[in-house]
Known about the structure:
Elements lengths: L1 H8 L3 E14 L4 E16 L4 E5 L6 H8 L7 E6 L2 E2 L5 H8 L2 E4 L13 H11 L5 H14 L16 H13 L5 E5 L7 H18 L2 E6 L2 H7 L2 E6 L2 E7 L9 H8 L40 H5 L5 E4 L2 E3 L5
Parallel strand pairs: 3-8, 3-9, 6-7, 7-8
Antiparallel strand pairs: 1-2, 1-4, 4-5, 9-10, 10-12, 11-12
Amino acid sequence: MHYALTLYMTNLLDVQNVSKLFPIKGGFWGKTKGHVRAVHRVSLQVKPGEIVGLVGESGCGKSTLGRTILKLLEPTEGKIVFNGADITHLSPKEMRPLRKEMQIIFQDPYASLNPRMTIGTAIAEPLIVHKLVAKKKRRDRVVELLEMVGLNADAYGKYPHEFSGGQRQRVGIARALSLEPKLIIADEPVSALDVSIQAQIINLLSDLQKKLGLAMIFIAHDLKVVEHISQRIVVMYLGEVMETFDSKDLTNAKHPYTKSLLSAIPIPDPNVKKERIILKGDVPSPINPPTGCVFHTRCPIAVDRCCVEIPQLRPIGPNQQAACHLV
């Protein structure tokens, strides 16, 4: 028992075999006819002050996993251990004190802010809910947060429609930081922004992480973006983890799915040629995923074993794991 506690405390977050199923209901009585398997037996760990990149195609379960970790969605099975405590079965009331330690930055900076609230009110709201700052000091704290993310104090009384997408995302970051969390889940925070603004937001998040010692799960579908900001990368496909490795070892990825993602990254030098790995077919339905390895229907090197036997995530090198029979 003491060993288990020690193991948990080395990680700020320890996700163990977490799955999330969504029921499909139909008919007059609304009976469950099947399930959408959004996340299937995913395990990952995040150390204090570490940024873990979560990458994969759209619909692979990245955002669902992030929301399940925060208990915005209830896990179907598995265990979630945060800061040494098992939070898997905590009720919303029991989770409330932990909310200030676990925050999220949403993908859409337009939809994540209430258009009827001023920026100052939106950022101050978490401080009011958790009763962290006295009323007379609240404005000073909000202005401090605005300046921390690169906005001026005069933004306090303005409304969301008066800001650009990048500025709204800065407001979302300030709101997430207002409670001084230990963990932030950044759910594709730059995918809705222009390319020139993406770099600014990524650099801002990187600087804040170093300054405040935050742990972060950075969700994206661009491997190069994830490589730039993360210390470790987790690659997902159809709700399952395909490969994990240190970001500095990105070019040494072994799983055929990761290699296909790498081959899609454009090279700015027109004189450099590289082989493009085109995956055949479409992503299978999460309602009826393939038997064996979920990637075998599109894998360029699949063999008969891949169709019937589920590969386990196993070590293949220093700080590197892959779920593939042929690696």
